[in-house]
Amino acid sequence: MTDIFDSWLTELARVRRYSPHTVAAYRRDAAPLRELAAGKPAAQIDAADLRRLLARAHAAGASPRSLARRLSSWRQFFLWLSRHETLDANPTDGLRAPRRGRELPKALAVDQTQALLEQAGRRPAEAGDVDARATASRDLAMAELLYSSGLRLSELVGLDLRYADGGAGGSRGWIHLAEAEVTVVGKGNKRRTVPLGRPAIAALEHWLELRPRWVADPAELAVFVGRRGRRIAPGVVQQRLALLGQTGGLPTRLHPHMLRHSFASHLLQSAQDLRAVQELLGHASLSTTQIYTRLDYQHLAQAYDQAHPRARRRGGN
User: Is 18 annotated in the active site?
Assistant: First the structure.
């Protein structure tokens, strides 16, 4: 009965034109089914058999992601098999893989962040021409703002110089340099206003001095633009930050959410005020903030020792 699996994999490769890498992944995922089919026809494999296979893989250390991928492969196999043989039911119906944990980017260490931004702050002065200086200044302002205020990428890209009516309900975000604040409309159309730190204000002011070189249309209100004078695209922000991290010597790829995560983690480590961080991040649920910030145990223990009246041992028994 193992020939049925070869037929399936051959169709994936030749008819559906799946890549060799993808077919190899399906082959690995189907291996437990092949072993099971050595003792009974594949059409007679039932949900209980599959549950035992998943449980065995889980006990062997397979991750939720791996189990979910394996179950997805099995689901496709039995769907294909149902078109070639009579099945009482698809045994994968009703089966669910273990829930995957929420994956979040790692925060930079405080000294890593400071070194990165300090190095980025030197780049405008080192640039060889005005356009290169403007690019470096803009990139620094974006990085400083993401770290200073914990903005999402979409919120950063959507920032305007000031609030303006029109279109789909007006601006989705705008800056107030005089008040050292930035206002954004985030997920769920929830508006929040967050502070701007002094380095972020200085970086923004320097960028805004150079911005008119690229913007010919006075109606363009986007804070961050490309060389053609139009609002910068999210993908460009991601590319520029990745380059910033690479030239800054970071051991991992820098992306906007990493700076937002660093903002949350560093603020919580200093202030230890989960509710305040929740408001600054724009989270609807406090549990989201608890998962997002991920303080390490050492810091939690230190905070406990400093704050709890019975944390420290006293002399005597």
Answer: no
Q: Does the annotation mark 21 as catalytic?
A: no
**Could you tell me if 66 and 41 are in contact, meaning their C-beta atoms sit under 8 angstroms apart?**
no
Phi, psi of 161 (to 5 degrees): -65, -30
Catalytic residue list contains 40: no
C-beta atoms surrounding 184 within 10 Å: 23
Please answer whether residues 176 and 183 qualify as being in contact, where contact means their C-beta atoms are separated by less than 8 angstroms: yes
**pTM of the complete model:** 0.61
Among 58, 75, 231, 257, the one annotated catalytic: 257
Catalytic residue among 187, 191, 227, 299: 187
Compute how many other C-beta atoms are within 10 angstroms of the C-beta atom of residue 101: 10
Residue of 70, 138, 255, 292 with catalytic role:
292
260 is catalytic: yes
Q: Are 133 and 262 in contact (CB under 8 A)?
A: no
Residues 100-128 pLDDT 10s:
665 555 788 889 999 999 999 998 888 88
> Which of these is catalytic: 152, 211, 255, 261?
152
